[in-house]
Fold this sequence. Notes:
The complex is a heterodimer of chains A (319) and B (562).
Chain A: H1 2-25, H2 41-51, H3 57-69, H4 83-118, H5 123-137, H6 140-154, H7 173-210, H8 214-221, H9 226-238, H10 240-256, H11 258-263, H12 269-279, H13 282-310, H14 312-318
Helix pairs in contact in A: 1-13, 4-5, 4-7, 4-13, 5-7, 6-7, 7-9, 8-9, 10-13, 12-13, 13-14
Chain B: H1 26-32, H2 39-42, E1 59-64, H3 80-90, E2 95-97, E3 108-110, E4 113-118, E5 124-129, H4 143-153, E6 169-176, E7 179-184, H5 191-196, H6 203-206, H7 218-223, E8 231-237, E9 241-246, E10 260-265, H8 269-277, E11 283-284, H9 289-297, E12 301-306, E13 310-316, H10 326-335, H11 338-345, E14 350-352, H12 375-384, E15 397-398, E16 401-402, E17 404-410, H13 414-428, E18 433-439, H14 441-449, E19 455-461, H15 469-472, H16 489-499, H17 504-521, E20 524-530, E21 532-537, E22 540-541, E23 558-559
Parallel strand pairs in B: 1-10, 1-11, 17-18, 17-19
Antiparallel strand pairs in B: 2-3, 4-5, 5-7, 6-7, 8-9, 9-10, 11-21, 12-21, 13-19, 13-20, 14-20, 15-16, 22-23
Amino acid sequence: MLRRLAASVLLAYLVLTLTFFFIHLAPGEPSVLFSDPRINAEKRQEIRRAYGLDRPLPEQYWRWMTSVSRGNWGISLQSGQPVFEVVLPRLLNTALLVAAISAVEYGFGISFGVIAAARSGTALDRFIRAFFLVLYAVPVFWLALVAMQLFSVRWPLFPIGQMTSHRFATMAPWEKALDLAHHVALPAITLGLARSGAVVRYVRNGLLEVQGKDFIRTAHGKGLSTGRVLWVHALRHALLPLAQRLGTSLPILLSGSLIIEAIFSWPGIGYQAYLAILQRDYPVILASTAILGLTVVLGSLLADLLMLWLDPRVRHAAT
Amino acid sequence: MHQASRPGNPKPSRQLGQLPADGRSALRGLLLLLFALGVAACGPSEPSQEGPRAAEDSTIVVAYSIDIEGVNELTTQPTPIHMALQYFALFMPLLEEQADYQDGPPTFAPRLAESYEFSEDHLKATFQLRDDVVWSDGVPVTAEDVRWTWQAQTSPELAWNYADSKSRIRDVEVVDEHTVVFHFTEVYPSQLLDINTGVILPKHAWSQLPFDQWRDSSGWFRDHLVTNGPFVLESWEPQQRFVLARNPNYFEPGIPKVDRIVFEVTREPQAQLAKLRSQQAHLVEFLTPADIASVEAEEFLRVETYIPRFFYFVTWNIERPFFQDTRVRQALTMAIDRQAIIDTLYYGYASPSHSPFASDIWAHNKDIEPWPYDPTRAKELLAEAGWADSDGDGILDKDGQPFRFELVTNSENQVRRDIVVMVQQMLGQVGLQVEPRLMEFNALIGPLSTQDFDAAVAGLAIDTSLNLRFFFHTEAIAGGYNWGAFSNPRVDQLILDLEGESDTVVAKQMFDELQTVLHREQPMTFLYQGLRAGGVNRRFVDYNPNAINSFFNMRYWRLLDE
């Protein structure tokens, strides 16, 4: 495990180094340099000098690495704020959104997967599969806009965008929790439902696969109820592939929540990274890349730990 | 002594109306929305806590597409929202430029200064400051603030974008607590404009930080923010919202007229529109043309329009042999059906243009007749320039060289992408082969600045000074915005002469001639001037946007009771 962790850290370092050089070699310059026609060539050079962008690339790389090794990720060229003051709050916001999305995705996916397996071959099974397949196939931005039109404009149940109300700071703790839940609900339900189609299929197929297995027959033979056999014994087996999926989908969710963040004005890291790329805000791009790299490592680790917990074969092999 | 005129009261809004009662039952929605799982019930029963229903404390909500990046004008990009924040909300300049640019150069009304006077030789300008203005922490605003602000603006460590506007100010002298003198190195027409560029900053609060640390210390300024404008920054949640609240120490009694203005960062135009229609926002400052009609149709909304100072064009790179002949450039303009572009992409909310100046600006030459859409005449002009389809492949050629070129634009802009496709089709009808190319905006700037392109669809904004040096002067080819490498000695001379011309009548004649030359030479095909339309809730009155800034008069904004 430790060796794998070390390899992952090395991989993250390589990704960062490559990102550094690629983003600096990409055409274009930080938008702070050309956003105003009154900035002449001389002024641009002054601004480059102020940010150290006039130095040779290897020197910039060395200075950046030295700085990072001291825990200083630099200053955002766009906002003038320390990079981690820009990126970390966004990461936490996205983590909250991802947690809510995952809760919906797995909550709905597992529940309807079990129902579909229990009613396998019936009209209900077919309806569930078709319904979730359609949701899975529909583009997320379209689904989000439709959800917004229906549940915020037509029936004003949810706020359109933002994480909190503007009076959030003056609310009591319980009001804050409700306010946050109210704001996260629509984006989480939208993206969570869209993604749950895959979970439904995983669970349904997993359950059908174990139906005739010895341990299921044994459970039935011991007189356990059908529900207990299904929800406790069979489901645990069916969840194994999902554990892998959860780990590997974490970085995809983190970076892929960009569209939802944009539509629902959620101040997350996906949209922040996208903006930074457009603006060539190098320090923010690099910090975002580092964080996303770290989530790949953590996601993989999480998947392994879940497998250890869920699968006795893996646990025995590990011991 | 010049006593600038006081700004008039903003004109009242046209039609006022009450919001319709929301008869759409939330219960009906709940029944349909089983998957809401009760989460919605956790929230407020009204559409939004920050919407018009919460108007008893007079809060206006604006759904706006971008966030602010900081609170210090000298270290942030001069985007419209930053300019609004600096000039009309948090701080004040010495004078306030008025939106009376239709008949002559804009005038200035008193703001922080109550009067000013130039010396006989025009090398000194003495400003008398108001004696009743204090910072939000109670400290008086004095001449020392004015002098120190000038020192910050001209600090090389800071490299302020607009520092050039101060380059001919030799010194700023403090005479007494409320009198300050600007000393110039020379006399020129825009002396007043240069003095007035930039807001006055708080010396007592911000001078503790050395200038060389300013660019890296955005958060420090926020932590040490004191203001002298009508608002204070009550809160700022990056990429979420910033909230302006009434400044209790502001000197004008009864101003501002609302308690709060909340700017909610809302990137997606469809989300902005949804907020407006669900009454979660009172204002969407920029509606896409496709949405204007639907907003006008809503009983509780209205549309406010103005002509912004943008000009949109196809620039031809004159360094390329194709575009060196004036007749070819004229032919290209006549082959592009600009009205069709306007009707298709702008739904009629634009008009064809022939000048970089919008039609409501005093310097605009109204006597020029725009080139008509005339593909037949375009073909004749191309033939006169030696272009003919000699090999019968449908593409014009000359000396064995087919008239084939790339038309580039920035990929993020859907309207420009559509324009590229339409222009490709229109020029194809006169025998030119256009190859569309899309590039990310940031990546596009490099090729444009180094003339490494054939032709480009783009747009630029022009500021109050109406100085075309950055766009059409030969010097602006290298590093400026003269991307098409247009060079004309008469244009260069007129631009320079205009910078030294104080007489408005003479300046108007020179502007007219300049536009006539540009019209004849067609360094670019001016496409259209678009109307900027904002969607406004009818309860929100006295929103009077103009080309200076959409939020020009936010201290006069009002919200009627439900």
